[in-house]
Amino acid sequence: MDTKRATATGVIVTVGPPSSVGDPPVNRAAVSTRLGAGAVPVDMVAAMPELIAPTARLHTAWLEAHAEWGPGVHEDGFGLLPSDEVDAPADFAAWVATRTDALDQSNPVAAGQVRCTYRWIVEGNRVLGGIALRHEGNDAVRWAGHIGYGIRPSARRRGLATWALGRILDQARVLGMDRVLIVCEADNVASAKTTERLGGLLEDVRDTEDGAARRYWIEFSGPST
Predict the structure, then answer these.
(1) What is the pTM of this model?
(2) Residue 117 falls within a domain, yes or no?
(3) Structural domains of the chain, count
(4) CA–CA dist 27, 44 (Å, integer)
(5) What is d(CA 102, CA 95) in angstroms, rounded to the nearest whole number?
(6) Is the CB of residue 128 less than 8 Å from the CB of residue 65?
(7) Could you report the per-residue pLDDT of 125-156, keeping only the tens digit for each?
(8) Alpha carbon distance 220, 178 (integer Å)
(9) Are residues 78 and 172 in the same domain?
């Protein structure tokens, strides 16, 4: 049950149970304020994550997240290729434009590519991760799946992946997709549990050029709301 506590400034702080799968996970920071001679803890100050379209405004924050993964580590969900230049502001803005233009129906899709929705997981001015939804199937999707996502190391174990995946699955329903394929490395227990938590059914484990991979299908039933 939620409880409420008044602070010395009259602010009401609600203290409740952890967020459900459908709610954004809350980043709770303990602070304190003073009332008379004693210190009174204000239990929770909440910052709510959001899914937003890629934006050049967050260049510095995105680079901080990128650096946290470290060199040579693949960051699922951003659509970043080894050849992409993102350090200079102009290059980053041009790269962001390619990610947002991917949804423009007037733009032709390059050979071997599919239309894709890219979203960043942000909290305030921090970029915590990314998630991508590929709208159709081709050879690349049959290998990598319809959905890819990644959470920066310092933001893991907060339920962000489950929350973001749930949100992007809602988008897949809106697009009229009947089911989606999610692929993760066989030893990536966290991703496997996230997918299973949201209804993923294991098809099989296959050997790929990058190692063994789990293949999950999530099927949709009933109209989207």
Answers:
(1) 0.76
(2) yes
(3) 2
(4) 9
(5) 11
(6) yes
(7) 999 999 999 988 777 788 889 999 999 999 99
(8) 6
(9) yes
State how far the Cα of 119 lies from the Cα of 116, in Å rounded to an integer.
Answer: 10
pLDDT digits (tens, 9 = 90+) for 46-80: 568 999 999 999 999 999 999 998 776 567 788 88
Residues 113 and 148 grouped into a single domain: yes
Counting as low any pLDDT under 70, the low residues of the chain are 1-47, 72-74, 102-112, 222-225
41 and 66, same domain (yes or no) = no
Tokens standing for residue 200 = 């993923």
User: Is 64 domain-assigned?
Assistant: yes
Tokens representing 39 are 């210190």
Q: Which one, of 194, 51, 57, 70, lies nearest residue 131 by Cα? A: 51
The per-residue b/e assignment along 47-70, b for 16 or more CB within 10 angstroms, e otherwise, is: eebebeebbeebbebbeebbeebe
Cα(179)–Cα(183) distance, integer angstroms: 13
What domain range is 39 assigned to?
3-47
Examine the domain organization and report whether 22 and 113 are in the same domain: no
Angstrom distance (rounded) from CA 26 to CA 124: 12
75 and 160 in a single domain? The answer is: yes
Q: Which residues contact 120 (CB under 8 A, 6 or more apart)?
A: 51, 52, 53, 54, 55, 58, 62, 78, 127, 129, 130
